[in-house]
Design brief:
The protein has 104 residues and is α+β, with helices and mostly antiparallel strands. It has helices spanning 57-60, 63-67, 88-91, and strands at 7-10, 13-15, 21-23, 32-37, 50-55, 73-75, 92-95.
Length: 104
């Protein structure tokens, strides 16, 4: 079990003594049909056109895929450019840790 120390804001949020926000149990991926912009998928043509993608359980919950989120920065919405090591500090609002499948 993980223990967090701070002032409880809600069942899944607390503020540390230093003023940092800790959010627990935040979904970062889901299965099913999802609408992406073609530009997000690096497809040619109109980058704003919608593309439906089926995200399977095997893909989303693949151990390597889940592990790839660990320690990555969290942003406030999608930045206007791809996040890279050289620009991450300008967009990062936090980081991801303790990635796991809910209920497993």
């Amino acid at each position: 079990m993980l223990a967090y120390y701070g002032t409880q804001i809600s069942p899944n949020q607390l503020e540390t003594e230093e003023g940092f926000l800790i959010c627990k149990n935040v979904p970062i991926a889901r299965t099913g049909k999802q609408l992406y912009r073609a530009g997000d998928l690096q497809l040619t043509g109109d980058p704003e056109r919608g593309i439906w993608v089926e995200r399977t359980e095997e893909e989303v919950f693949d151990p390597a895929a889940m592990a790839s989120f660990e320690g990555k920065p969290v942003t406030d919405n999608h930045p206007p450019e791809n996040l890279e090591p050289y620009n991450a500090a300008g967009y990062a609002k936090g980081h991801v840790q303790n990635v796991r499948r809910e209920g497993w």
